[in-house]
Automatic annotation (TrEMBL):
Protein name: Regulatory protein, LysR:LysR, substrate-binding
UniProt-listed PROSITE patterns: HTH_LYSR
Record-linked Gene3D superfamilies: Periplasmic binding protein-like II (3.40.190.10), Winged helix-like DNA-binding domain superfamily/Winged helix DNA-binding domain (1.10.10.10)
Source species of the chain: Pseudomonas savastanoi pv. glycinea (Pseudomonas syringae pv. glycinea)
Entry keyword set: DNA-binding, Transcription, Transcription regulation
Organism placement in taxonomy: Bacteria, Pseudomonadati, Pseudomonadota, Gammaproteobacteria, Pseudomonadales
Molecular function per GO: DNA-binding transcription factor activity; transcription cis-regulatory region binding
Amino acid sequence: MDECNHAAHQTVKKAMIYHSQHKKYFAMRRLNLNHLHTFSLVIAHGSFSAAAERLHLTQPAVSLQIRQLEDQLNLKLIERVGKRLKPTSAGTTLLEHIARIDAVVEDALLELSSHASGVAGKVAIGTGATACIHLLPPMLQALRRRFAQLDVRVSTGNTDGILKAVEENRLDLALVTLPASGRSLHITPLLEDEFVAIFASSQQPAASSRLPLK
């Protein structure tokens, strides 16, 4: 009977430990970025009042944010050393993470700002060498003027290879010569290119002669 009670006690103890760790894990997932920023300012300035002035808040409001952060983590983050507030060992660890969190948030905001214009991202275009040299440059210049945040990347190749890349989603669109076909492709003719024959003046054929195309 005692063994059963002991086993039950150990099971409950393990469950309580698991619950505590589980609770702390989910607390970390809900960390308030404003609280983290306030904590870093308190440490940087060494007092609640200086941080409050920087944040345009009252001192009690800053103290409350720090208390809520400590309660959420179930850790003491700040201690007074002389006249200044210093981070505890746990607070120092948190500060290191805050620096990385700030960098990630800043990168995210910077990347998201490129979408503010409504058109942003990357577009991969495939084309032949002739179109790449003579047709695409003015088109790309017009695109960049209109959509500055659009990143256009161009690759060249033969028509069959380019169309296959579009079908496999390795390219977003293609600019190739017709005929071109594919079940999953939407093909739109853009322009007609006139072909002319050029001869040396000494070999110019008669105006009435017809030349076969081979």
